[in-house]
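Late entry, written up from scratch paper. The run itself happened at the end of the previous shift, but nothing got recorded in the book at the time, so transcribing now.
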Amino acid sequence: MTTKVAVVGASGRMGRLVSKIVTETPGFELYAQIGSTGDLSEMLGADLAVDVTIPAVSHTIVEFAVSHGIPVLVGTSGWSADRIRALERRLASTPDLGVVIIPNFSVGSVLASSFAAMAARFFDSIEIVEAHHATKIDSPSGTAVRTAELIAAARGTLGPVSAPHTDQRARGQQVASVPIHSLRLQGVVAKQDVILGGVGEVLTISHETLAPSAYEAGIAIALRASVEARGVVVGLDRLIDLSAGQGE
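Output as recorded:
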């Protein structure tokens, strides 16, 4: 069976890349490409909608798709924890429908965020510095927000990280108690450093995206998973096996 995919935001950089991966992935067909001035009704008849637009309109696109029974793969940043909880409540009445939200399609980025969450139990001082291209309109990035939330969850009863002087504007924006510092620079694709400070040592977990091709494998994984997903699924880490392999 072929899955017909409607890409919303198809004229953008990520939209063009997603459209390319859809056409190259067996079992998927590019059904519609909807640009910024397109009518959302063009996605009607699709088996899956992919949203790669901007934070200001992403919610509207997801609501339109869900209201018409179309599962959605969201590759747009800006989905806060509160907005995700509201979407979970929205989908409670449609248990056969799924929305997959992927802050970052890079497998390497997902691994780096997972490593940071693993290390967060051993360090109390943790901050994130993320850099993206100058035209990225939102900050902090969805990847940084997701990383901070994973760090907070991993710490559990250890409580919030140590982040002094957060009343000062230069100390970044706190997400789940973790200060995040955002850079928007020409010449950068995407880079994130999670810096963990301890007694007598500093651990830096760094990931840099050098080209959009880094997202291709993750997009293909997310496309396949979105067809069968139910409810709200957040993060590429939920779709791949991050357990340590056991050598024989």
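Helices lie at 13-24, 55-67, 81-91, 107-119, 142-155, 216-228.
(Scratch paper discarded after transcription.)
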